[in-house]
Design goal:
Layout: H1 8-18, E1 26-30, E2 33-37, H2 42-58, E3 63-66, E4 70-73, E5 82-84, E6 88-92, E7 104-106, E8 112-116, H3 121-134, E9 139-144, E10 149-157, E11 160-168, E12 173-175, E13 181-183
Parallel strand pairs: 4-7, 8-9
Antiparallel strand pairs: 1-2, 3-6, 4-5, 6-8, 9-10, 10-11, 12-13
């Protein structure tokens, strides 16, 4: 029986999916590159926790949260689908999006992803932003520890978001629908 030859993209995706990252490490396939990151430090987790609590308590729409949920996103060019793990993923509770989901799930229904910069801040600022926009994730919230700023990106189109708002830590950041509240960032200082 003749088999179709595997493309370079097929081999890359198969190799990625077969990876067994060390405990605590996170492996992602981003724009055709396998990226392995070490476990985050405590400050990184504190930022996530502060934001997650506000969203759960204050969002106009009841939200579910998942930390480190694998998302499959459309990719550009000849790359296989991006397999990205945001620091946080929010979805309306009524969807029960995470129930029964595979390790890597499509991003349909996700309302917002959250990234906190760490060892490779440019990946969060540029590469992952493009991945989330290309995947159609409505909102991308970026906490940039290096610049002490928080940004909400909205209105994804093609490879980027058409709108964004950046404020320094300490200023409230308005999150649009379905959240519809001002995210307090004073405790991020």
């Amino acid at each position: 029986m003749a088999h179709e030859p595997l493309t370079q993209e097929d081999v890359l995706l198969e190799g990625f999916l077969a990876l067994d990252a060390p405990e605590g490490f996170r492996a992602e396939l981003v724009e055709g590159e396998i990226v392995v990151t070490p476990p985050p430090d405590g400050d990184h987790e504190d930022y996530i926790n502060r934001i997650m609590k506000q969203v759960i308590r204050r969002s106009r729409t009841d939200m579910d949260f998942s930390g480190n949920k694998g998302l499959k996103l459309r990719s550009g060019g000849a790359c296989p689908k991006n397999h990205v793990i945001p620091d946080g993923t929010f979805a309306p509770s009524e969807l029960r999006l995470y129930r029964g989901a595979d390790s890597w799930m499509p991003c349909d229904g996700v309302a917002m992803v959250l990234e906190v910069t760490s060892t490779k801040p440019e990946a969060d600022r540029e590469t992952k932003r493009r991945c989330y926009a290309r995947g159609g994730v409505p909102l991308y919230l970026l906490v940039d520890r290096e610049t002490a700023q928080i940004t909400v990106f909205s209105d994804p189109q093609d490879d980027d978001y058409r709108e964004h708002r950046t404020l320094p830590f300490g200023k409230p950041l308005a999150l649009p629908e379905p959240f519809a509240f001002d995210l307090e960032t004073g405790d991020l200082l």
